[in-house]
Design brief:
By secondary structure, the protein is mainly beta. The protein has one domain: Porin (Beta Barrel). The protein contains five helices and 16 strands. The chain has a 14-stranded antiparallel β-barrel with strand order 1-3-4-5-6-7-8-10-11-12-13-14-15-16. Strand 3 and strand 4 form a beta hairpin. It is elongated and about 75 Å long. The N terminus is likely disordered.
Length: 441
């Protein structure tokens, strides 16, 4: 690789890392997509790569792209909360909404051909996260808040920087993308669970803690015919360092890896200007003990212990459908739909009121418009329809409930809906232009 290319690699990595910010959820705490095009298509596109942010889903897709870069940002506007029925004993009664209504989420990417059959690139994006905030209202003794531990909420943020290489072998392209991951968490309002923690001083209200690690993403795209393409990608788990400040909450002493995932899909050009896409994705939450271990029963001194209680999440499956109509060379219109299964079962609603991530149906739309020969603006809008899950309140171990119990006199109902608006700028460099920063628009 030339000295210029190495300088590009280092500079682009620094640029994308500075823009990496995590986000809210769609499939559990994974996003639908990581750029305006993917979002407008409902998350579809593993078999149809047309811009540099495709690297974040399928690294094989960059092999046919021109040298280009992308800068984008999304505004996430979720509404979520919980309500109770009957006489709850563990959670504060009432109809309670979370604060923190708007979240900015940047993303960026850069792709450059190496030769006619290979390319490299890098991308930074937020792959998921949780952010809730419940005040002291709807008082629960002794300190108020949902669990009696005062102000409560979770802020889990995850950011990723991927470095990809793709090689084409005739009609088949293969890609690999080693990925660095950083996650940060701040959790408040669980002091009332101190008797159930293996380390009560590392349970709640300890400020921000950081975790570092990484994994690898693999991808392939096969052009079966000129009109029909198949794509697939898989990510290993992101193996992360422990959250030491919350080792008394998360199973295995604060272990919180990021789950593996697989995605497969097809794309078909109905006409040269009209493409339809369909994807399926599976996320292996069952591979992360602190997320998937049962949240019931919670016994004395078990939180944070080896294979201790988690949040009871199940693996999720999702389906994405997208249509892109390239109306003219400088204008493309997009529509999408995304459906995801709910990771939170009805018997795990109590602890999960801190993170009611139960998205199901999403509708999306967007467009791409060329403002110059080199620059294109992409817009996307996603609406997540209201979804809810209802179950019995879970009671932890007490002298009167030595094995825990479900409160037959109370139900907890979690709900979530939201909107997302995304904008991105894509720049394609002129052939022979070796500048790293665009010299003209």
């Amino acid at each position: 690789m030339s000295g210029y290319s190495w300088r590009n690699l280092v500079s682009t990595a620094a640029l994308t890392a500075s823009l990496a910010t995590p986000a809210l959820a769609a499939d559990g705490y994974f996003l639908i997509g990581y750029g305006p095009r993917q979002k407008a298509l409902g998350g579809a596109g593993v078999a149809d790569s047309r811009e540099s942010m495709a690297l974040s889903v399928n690294p094989a897709g960059i092999v046919d792209l021109e040298r280009q870069m992308h800068l984008g940002i999304s505004a996430l506007m979720p509404e979520r909360g919980y309500s109770t029925e009957g006489l709850p004993k563990v959670v504060a009664p009432g109809d309670i909404r979370s604060g923190r209504p708007i979240f900015p989420v940047p993303n960026s990417a850069y792709v450059s051909p190496i030769d006619a059959n290979s390319s490299w690139g890098t991308a930074s994006y937020g792959n998921g996260g949780i952010a809730t905030s419940f005040d002291f209202g709807h008082f629960h003794s002794p300190l108020g808040g949902p669990f009696g531990g005062g102000y409560a909420g979770v802020n889990l943020e995850q950011s990723f920087t991927s470095f990809a290489y793709a090689q084409k072998f005739g009609s088949l392209a293969i890609g690999i993308a080693p990925t660095l991951a950083v996650q940060m968490i701040n959790l408040q309002g669980l002091k009332s669970f101190s008797p159930y923690s293996s380390d009560m001083y590392r349970l709640s209200d300890n400020g921000y803690d950081w975790s570092f690690g990484g994994g690898v993403r693999f991808g392939m795209q096969w052009r079966v015919t000129d009109q029909f393409r198949i794509g697939a990608a898989a990510s290993t788990p992101m193996f992360m360092t422990r959250f030491a400040k919350y080792a008394g909450l998360f199973a295995d002493g604060g272990r919180f890896d990021i789950p593996a995932s697989i995605v497969a899909g097809v794309a078909y050009d109905v006409t040269p200007d009209l493409t339809v896409m369909a994807d399926w994705r599976h996320i292996f939450y069952s591979g992360v003990s602190s997320v998937s271990n049962p949240s019931f029963p919670v016994l004395y001194r078990t939180l944070g212990s080896s294979n201790g209680p988690g949040f009871g999440w199940k693996d999720t499956d999702s389906a994405s459908f997208g249509v892109e109509w390239r109306v003219q060379p400088g204008l493309a219109l997009r529509l999408g739909y995304h459906y995801a299964t709910n990771p939170i079962p009805t018997d795990s609603v109590t602890l999960n009121l801190l993170a009611p991530i139960i998205n199901a149906h999403h509708a999306s739309a967007g467009l791409s418009y060329a403002i110059t020969k080199n620059s294109t603006i992409d817009l996307a809008f996603v609406y997540g329809f209201k979804n809810s899950v209802r179950g019995r309140e879970a009671l932890p171990q007490t002298p009167s409930t030595p094995f825990g119990a479900y409160n037959q006199a109370a139900n907890v109902n979690l709900w979530l809906r939201g909107t997302e608006v995304s904008i991105g700028w894509n720049y394609k460099f002129d052939l022979g232009d070796d500048s790293f920063i665009p010299t003209h628009l």
